[in-house]
Amino acid sequence: YKEGEAKALNQLGLVELKMEQFPEAEKLFRKSLMMLDSLGDRVSTGQVLLNLANLNAAQKNIEQAKSLYEKAIAILDESGLFSQSEKVRRVLADLEQNEVKHPDGEN
Question: Tens digits of per-residue pLDDT, 10-32?
Fold first, then answer.
């Protein structure tokens, strides 16, 4: 029951993110994260961390996004999801490269 609710909250957060309703998306992702963490669902926790990282990147909160991407990578790696973690590593590398090109945060 709680796992389904946590995953539904994550999906609702994705909808809010796509609509650029950032505060609501963050609230939903964080609630989902709390529930999944208490359930010990590491794979889903990694996915929500990835969504939170994307949210922070969309808001130009680069340092927070990088930290969340790194946490998601660690969970994906420990779960054996290496192809997914490699994709996230590329996103993180792009983010870091753009930060070097645009240190003032403007793109």
Answer: 999 999 999 999 999 999 999 99
* Contact yes or no for 88/72 (Cβ under 8 A): yes
> Which residues of the chain, if any, have pLDDT below 50?
102-107
CA pair distance 37, 17, nearest whole angstrom: 21
Contact 25, 17 (CB under 8 A): yes
- For residues 71, 76, 77, 83, the Cα torsion angle rounded to the nearest 10 degrees is -130
Residue type, 7: K
**C-alpha to C-alpha distance for 105 and 84, rounded to whole angstroms:** 27
